Amino acid sequence: MKRIAFLGLGIMGAPMARRLLDHGLHVTVWNRKAARAAPLVDAGARLAESPAQAASNAEAVIAMLADVDASRTVWLGPAGALAAMQRGTLAIDSSTLTVEWMRELGAAAAARGIGFLDAPVTGSKKQAEEGSLNFLVGGAAQDVERARSLFSAMGRGQVHVGPAGSGAMLKLINNFMCGVQVASLAEAIAMAERSGIDVKLAGDILAAGSPGSPLVKMVVPRMVARDYTPNFLVPLMVKDLTYVIDTFRNAGIELADARAARERFQAAADAGHEHQDIASVVEVFRRN
Ligand code: NAP
Predict the structure, then answer these.
(1) Cβ of 42: how many Cβ atoms within 10 Å?
(2) 287 — pLDDT class (breaks 50, 70, 90)
(3) Top-level CATH class of 170-284?
(4) How far is 114 from 82, CA to CA, in rounded Å?
(5) Please, which residues bridge with residue 61 across strands?
(6) Given the CA of residue 124, which atom of ligand 1 is nearest to it?
(7) Domain residue spans in the chain?
(8) Whether the CB of 175 sits within 6 Å of ligand 1
(9) How far apart (Å, rounded) are the C-alpha atoms in residues 61 and 85?
(10) For the segment 234-251, what is each residue's pLDDT rounded down to a tens digit?
(11) Which H helix or E strand runs over 138?
């Protein structure tokens, strides 16, 4: 596949589209706020005026959007991508979305003779820039094969989880753990501060010891340095945890810990950190 449309050029989408360009693919980009596309256009991408225009000549269309509302609008809304795609092409949504929506979109694509993959990613801004994302893919095996070169251009590869929706399911399970870890880390760092322990020392011990998951290792220095440069925005974590809570509830699991974590991130957003990194959730507990 050579002609690719990329829809959604945020923190993740822009570097992903850039990787495709760098691999010599013909990339047409679209973003709601068109100004965000400028660096990609400078690097050789074509700019489309609508998702439909971007999709009309593409062999594969990839979306990387904030949430289900954005994804629904971009794929199925007025000037949406799906209606403009040719039969036999491939639609891929790499945003973190719900299983229900991914199955619905997959069915809408199938009805038009278009392949569909839900392919959310693990990894963040840095991994998107360096091309080491991991794609968790739901859909038909032959479509996963067709998309292999795209996933390799944007990441270190893909895991075929199962049928449509299963990539989204595993991503939500993954982000449940991520959300709870970052919220509990914020409480731990705040407790160290309040007790008078050197916060850098406490952070180093947590990161080096049993609690030190790759995520904790990554977020500790940001909390200690109060560096909230956006990698993963606070409202997106609220969104993910909302999808997580609903998804688990449908399976009979009430997630008290995810609800508590969501409250923390919502409090951070309400306190003015909505344009900052999830590490800023520590500010909810800070006294100075
Ligand atoms: P972001 O920087 O906030 O970008 C969001 C994108 O969605 C932007 O292109 C934005 O367009 C677009 N958008 C929002 N609402 C829209 C609407 N109603 N109609 C059309 N476009 C809309 O977020 P991100 O960090 O790139 O994340 C994108 C997705 O990847 C999310 O689902 C997120 O959960 C997931 N994800 C993020 C990370 C991470 O570390 N950042 C990691 C893994 C997965 P505008 O520019 O016009 O606002």
Answers:
(1) 8
(2) confident
(3) mainly alpha
(4) 8
(5) 5, 91
(6) 40
(7) 3-163, 170-284
(8) no
(9) 8
(10) 999 999 999 999 999 999
(11) strand 133-138
Distance CA 19, CA 201 (A): 38
Q: What residue type is 170 in one-letter code? A: L
Record the pTM. Answer: 0.97
Catalytic residues: 171
Kindly report, residue by residue over 22-55, the tens digit of the pLDDT: 999 999 999 999 999 999 999 999 999 999 999 9
Under 8 Å CB-to-CB from 184, ≥6 apart: which residues? 261
Q: How far does CA 114 lie from the centroid of its chain?
A: 23
Tell me the pLDDT band of 288, cut-offs 50, 70 and 90.
low
Candidates 60, 63, 59, 85; CA nearest to 72 is 63
Torsion of CA 167, 169, 173, 175, to 10 degrees: 60
Q: How far apart are CA 158 and CA 136, in angstroms?
A: 6
From 127, 236, 241, 262, mutation site for ligand 1 pocket: most ligand atoms within 8 A of C-beta? 236
Residues facing 92 on adjacent strands: 62, 117
Instruction: Answer yes or no: are the C-beta atoms of 14 and 36 closer than 8 Å.
Output: yes
Ligand 1 neighbour 36 (Cβ under 6 A) = yes
Architecture of domain 3-163: 3-Layer(aba) Sandwich (3.40)
**How many residues are recorded in the chain?**
288
Residue-wise pLDDT tens digits, 184-235? 999 999 999 999 999 999 999 999 999 999 999 999 999 999 999 999 999 9
pLDDT in tens, 252-274: 999 999 999 999 999 999 999 99
